[in-house]
């Protein structure tokens, strides 16, 4: 087991009346990647900037290897330059009037490192990020991906204890982004460096993280390894934000320790059994039911003796080359489901969805959500 490296406890940051970051706590182990994932404006950058020291929290504290580096209550604040952290900013800001070498050497120069040592260290990190032959090139003549590497090299050059990366791949096109994602993961593993990574891209978050923190409106909804987040979301927001979900509405008819039954609103009275029930739902509540499409199987007709079968109308089928997209309707609920091209359904026919009880999630119906 790796050691605990950084601990953030109950961080709050207000800009005016609203809290941009509201009671956020997390831990990062040495050599691990923690990702902050969430929609625009949810407080990712603000959280990262508090870790880096560019923003002071109104409440809460941060500890590195059991030493408090910032605490609102104890009035402790270690300035950014004393934190031994490397940061790549959201707009990664490579300085255009400098060469690649000068850009990367800058943090060392500011720290008064000797010329020979600078030369050696800069060459080393440029090699590491694949820019070994571009030392003297002016930064203005670099592609987006190369600028990205310069920013990364600049953050790595003084051997930080932790790397803070704020959407470092967001300015790249899709193909380069994919390539850099793989390179970044390899580099992180090779250096065994601890990383806090910020993104709103779920693929990046799933592939790069050891631990994934899903944020919304200044709060962390869940922190867990990516697979656990996907398979066992703790809130409706987490389930919706990551992966695809099919939603149905209903009413909680029965609630027992091992599971619950929901009466689904639709064409005919129907009850669905689930083993994944949000803690706040009570018998009789209006609920919404979330199901991952890949956990559903589609049958031609009801299978005798099986429960959790949802009769649907197959309204339309679209051939997409590698799969068929089935447009289905149950009552007012419409959704799509991909099937293999070998299936032999036809438009307008009745089909039956089989919903495994472990894949059916029940959440409180949010107020304001109408039919
Ligand atoms: N210096 C500031 N002054 C006032 N409000 C701010 C400031 N910085 C951030 N905010 C507000 O705080 C909230 C969180 O901003 P933050 O930049 O942390 O979000 P984010 O999750 O990084 O979003 P994005 O994905 O768009 O980068 C937003 O509502 C933002 O407008
Ligand atoms: Mg941001």
Describe this structure in words.
α2 packs across α3, α2 packs parallel to α4 and α3 crosses α4. This protein has two domains: 237 residues, 3-Layer(aba) Sandwich (Rossmann fold); 120 residues, Nucleic acid-binding proteins (OB fold (Dihydrolipoamide Acetyltransferase, E2P), Beta Barrel). It is elongated and about 80 Å long. With 371 residues, the chain is α+β, with helices and mostly antiparallel strands. The mean pLDDT is 91. It contains eight helices and 22 strands. A six-stranded mixed sheet has the order 7-8-9-3-10-11, sandwiched between helices. A six-stranded mixed sheet has the order 14-13-12-16-22-15. A five-stranded antiparallel sheet has the order 2-1-4-5-6, with helices on one face. It starts with a strand and ends in a 7-residue tail after the last strand.
Quick recap:
The protein is α+β, with helices and mostly antiparallel strands and 371 residues long. It folds into two domains: 237 residues, P-loop containing nucleotide triphosphate hydrolases (Rossmann fold); 120 residues, OB fold (Dihydrolipoamide Acetyltransferase, E2P) (Beta Barrel). Helix content is 23%, strand content 37%.
Radius of gyration: 25 Å
Q: What order do the strands of the largest sheet run in, or round the barrel if closed?
A: 7-8-9-3-10-11
Please give the CATH class of the largest domain.
Alpha Beta
CATH topology of the largest domain: Rossmann fold
State the end-to-end CA separation.
49 Å
Bound molecules: adenosine-5'-triphosphate, magnesium ion
Estimate nothing, just give the exact number of structural domains. 2
Q: Mind summarizing the main beta sheet? A: 6 strands, mixed
**Element string (H = helix, E = strand):** EEEHEEEEHHHEHEHEEHHEEEEEEEEEEE
Global mean pLDDT: 91
Q: Any low-confidence stretches, pLDDT <50, length ≥5?
A: none
**CATH superfamily (homologous) name of the largest domain:** P-loop containing nucleotide triphosphate hydrolases
Helix content: 10-25%
Determine the strand fraction and express it as a percent band. Answer: 35-45%
CATH architecture group name of the largest domain: 3-Layer(aba) Sandwich
Given helix and strand content, the structural type is alpha+beta
Helical segment count:
8
């Amino acid at each position: 087991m790796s050691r605990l490296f950084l601990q953030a406890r109950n961080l709050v940051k207000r800009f005016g009346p609203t809290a941009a970051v509201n009671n956020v706590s997390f831990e990062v182990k040495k050599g691990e990647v923690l990702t902050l994932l969430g929609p625009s404006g949810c407080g990712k950058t603000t959280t990262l900037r508090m870790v880096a020291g560019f923003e002071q929290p109104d409440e809460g504290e941060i500890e590195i290897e059991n030493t408090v580096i910032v605490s609102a209550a104890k009035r402790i604040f270690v300035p950014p330059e004393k934190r031994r952290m490397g940061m790549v900013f959201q707009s990664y800001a490579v300085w255009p009037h400098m060469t690649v070498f000068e850009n990367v050497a800058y943090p060392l120069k500011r720290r008064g490192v000797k010329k020979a040592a600078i030369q050696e260290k800069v060459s080393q990190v440029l090699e590491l990020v694949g820019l070994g032959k571009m030392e003297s090139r002016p930064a203005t003549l670099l592609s987006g991906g190369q600028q990205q590497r310069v920013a990364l090299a600049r953050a790595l050059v003084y051997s930080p204890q932790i790397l803070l990366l704020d959407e470092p791949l967001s300015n790249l096109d899709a193909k380069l982004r994919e390539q850099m994602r793989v390179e970044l993961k390899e580099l992180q593993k090779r250096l065994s460096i601890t990383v806090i990574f910020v993104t709103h891209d779920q693929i990046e978050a799933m592939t790069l993280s050891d631990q994934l923190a899903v944020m919304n409106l200044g709060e962390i909804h869940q922190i867990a390894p990516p697979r656990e987040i996907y398979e066992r979301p703790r809130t409706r927001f987490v389930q919706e934000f990551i992966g695809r979900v099919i939603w149905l509405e209903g009413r909680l008819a029965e609630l027992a320790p091992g599971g619950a039954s929901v009466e689904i609103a639709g064409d005919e009275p129907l009850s669905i059994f689930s083993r994944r029930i949000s803690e706040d739902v009570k018998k009789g509540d209006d609920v919404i039911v979330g199901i991952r499409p890949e956990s559903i199987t589609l049958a031609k007709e009801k299978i005798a003796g099986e429960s959790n079968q949802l009769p649907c109308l197959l309204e339309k089928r679209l051939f997409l080359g590698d799969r068929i997209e089935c447009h289905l309707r149950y009552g007012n609920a419409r959704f799509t489901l991909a099937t293999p091209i070998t299936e032999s359904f036809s438009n307008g026919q009745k089909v039956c969805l089989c919903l495994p009880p472990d894949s059916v999630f029940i959440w409180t119906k949010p107020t304001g959500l109408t039919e």
